[in-house]
Amino acid sequence: MSTKMKIIYSILLCLCISVFTVKSDEEFERVYDQRTSDIYERGYILDIQSSNGISKAFLTYDGGSARVLISSDDGKTWEKEFSDENPVRGEEILALKGGIFKNNITMLPLYYGYIYIQNGLGNQYQEIKVPTKEFNFYVDLSNNALLLASTQVLLQSKDLGNSWDTLKSFDRQRILDISVINDSIYAISTGMNDSNFYHVSFDKGHNWLSVRTEYYYNKMCFIDSIGWACTAKKTGNGDQAKDAIFKTSNYGKKWTKIYEQENWKIFGLRDIDFFNLNVGIATGMAGKILVTKDGGVSWEQKIIDEDEIFDMDVMCSGFSSNGKMLIGATDFGIYRSPYPGTVLQKYEQFSLSPNPAGDFIMISISGTNPTLKHEVDETSEVSIFNTLCEKVMSVETLHATSLQIDISNLPKGMYFVKIGDGVSKFVKM
Fold it and tell me: pTM for the complete prediction?
């Protein structure tokens, strides 16, 4: 990329964020530094996952070495837990989406028919052969089974990898991500040549509902029926693409686009994770880091290192068990936000009552937000969004410091109210 293009992109990176912007003060600190390591110790940080107070990062290095880092102090310090230092076949490079860490079970997919499984913290990793010679890309875990997705086949094992059954095959489609929403509901995204689909099963993979999607979904994240997916789509202008984030409130039967922005790298957003229904993070190529505190109504762009942004590919993100934001940047290391997700929600600049609400809500505008320390524009519009981030109502404040809004026509459910930079939520009964 030319110097001129870098300058233009830097300006766009700072200015062209979401239509809605939330100001905040949280920063990221480097807690695992790859830049000081030997060049052969650097590599792709592919995924970060946490469970029961333990966080794990999945990495792959040049030469086919798979590695797992572990942290037991909320992501503050990391040490090596597992390393396949001398791969026998020379092919066991960790797959593109990393591994899975749930219920004290860790599973790493390897290319060409092998996986590693650790059954219980502190136990040895066991190498297991799986009945496919295709690339093994994605894994997930329910209480009933291990799930492994290769290029076009979804496999299931109910005995920790000793035997496998085929749950579903996808003709002329490539599996892009899988997600176990709960022990009965599984989700898969597929794509091939602009033919993109989302598939969901409500009976442990026996029957599937398929929904055609505008974009392919690189990564999905679910909290019960609420889900988010991130992706990018080529614009036809060289390496340019449009990053996009979608949201669903019904297990993926319907998806709504809640964010879109042009990005100069075609792979765009690569990962998305939510700590709760409000606080989430999405990351991608060229140092892109987006943070939301209202379920996706607004996104704030973060820049860790402006000097290195064009070389910093943030391929994964996650949260510690206590809500610390964790991101993995290839060849740079792991970064951590010192502010937990449970605190990041507290930024309202107005009060809202009653909550839960019936036919009306009352909004009192303070004029000055002591947290954000800036004046509220009294002519601001009051906007109400549903859980899909669709605007369902808007009312002008007309210089009023208090406002009663009729919400009798809104269906029951959760809603977000936005005035200026402030966002609050309520439940319509």
Answer: 0.76
